[in-house]
Amino acid sequence: MRSYAFTEWTYTVRVDERPQVIRRVGALLRAVAAAPGEGASTSDLGRATGLARPTAHRLLSSLADEGLVDRDRKTGLWSLGPELYLLGSQAAERYDVTERARDILRDLARETGESAFLSARRGDETVCVASEEGSFPLRSHVLHVGLRLPLGVASAGLVILSHLPDREVGEYLDRRELTERWGDEHSTPAIRERIEATRLTGYCVNPGLLVQGSWGMGAAVFDAAEQPAWALSLTGVESRFPPERRGELGELLLRQAHRLTLRLRGGR
Prior knowledge:
The protein is of the alpha+beta class. The protein is 47% helix and 22% strand. The longest helix is centred in the last third of the chain and has 22 residues, at 243-264. InterPro entries: GAF-like_dom_sf, HTH_MetabolicPath_Reg, Tscrpt_reg_IclR_C, Tscrpt_reg_IclR_N, WH-like_DNA-bd_sf, WH_DNA-bd_sf.
């Protein structure tokens, strides 16, 4: 047993239980963040994280004591707490790249008329962190800031997965089963086929695999260790992505992704 003291409170936990507790807390915080604007119930969060309702409630109550989540007294719904805002504002100084990508997103949206997005890799997922709406009146509304999707799903997750080493791709596909939620088009053979196509061109195409008629394209942005840490993507209706235009959009995405990569590495 070990005791841990943080500010004015102390808790004791078995050493071998620490990773499990941390995983559960992390899963709950991500589930709360993914909830609609009004928040989520304890039961919904329990189902989303695979936790029994009493366990979810106990952990959420402890998080609320620390200001990491907040509960509406009238509805009982949970939302992210003020302490996360303070922590996030400090972390943003090191990790946030959205402001450095704003003009690039604007350029993509202006030149193409499609909506442009920046997504960041977070473990086995991507999270959309910034967007710029295009001028074309018909738009796809599948992607939005805050949305989390598994690697291999949607253009950002696919292009990041495609640029990982084969070993990491294989390990990921071995531990994740995507067809139950995302359909047969996200089986391991289907994803591997799209990975090969992406590696040939450098950019990826998502031909309406999440929502029929909603297409997307993406290009990876690399960190200083040459790892695919972010992705730029364009989304729109199917009619805006005919074969003769995909090459043009792909090349534009690659140029802007390279521009952002250099910028994040200290270039202009």
